[in-house]
Structures are given as structure tokens and as C-alpha cells.
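Can anyone check this?
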Amino acid sequence: MNGRILFSVIDIVLLIAGLAGYLYIVGGQLRRVATVLEECSSLVWDVKRNAEVIDSGLGSINNTGRVIAGALPLLYDMGERIVKGATFDHDAAVDGGHAAPASGTRRSRLLEGVGYDAD
């Protein structure tokens, strides 16, 4: 046999062996991807099954949202009128330099519980 023919045969055998190895590696990766996709497909069907329950009440949810969205400008206007009508007199709220309690003087019952009489 001629040297060139022998070199060509060896070259072709190495090329086929390299391609076989490459296909073996790619096939393993594709098997792993197929397994993950199969798991994902079952999850997608679970989500679809759960969403079908929501679909029946979606019209009611949308109607409620439209009513609320329609009422927001009215509520905003009423809130603006309340704020404009509210007056705060700082001098009346402050007594002698400190804020006066809203309910008057507080009295603790804890001291009475241990037998202490402040009077």
C-alpha cells in the first residue's frame, strides 16, 4: 500500500471516531435536557389546572376592579375637601411648651396594685 492511502485511511478512521465521541456527548446532554423538560411539562400542566379554577371568577374580579377604579376620583376629591376643611391650631394643642395629652392626665393603677397610695 502506498503511504498516502494508509495516511488517508487512518485520517478517516480518526475523523469517524471523533464524530462518534462528539455525538455520544451531545446525546447525553440532550437526554438530560429531555428529562428536565419532561419535569417542566408536568409543572406547566399543574399550573394550567390551577388557573382554570381562577378563570371562572375572573369576570367578577375585573368588574370589581372597574368599580373601584371608577370610585377613586370621587374618593380623591372628597379627601381633598376634607384636608382643605381641616384646621390645626398649634397654640391650642400646646400647653405651656409641651404637648397636652388628648385624654387629660393619665392615672396608673400599677401603684395601687402594689399597695402604694400617692395621696
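Reply from J.R.: I decoded it. The CA atoms of residues 107 and 113 lie 13 Å apart.
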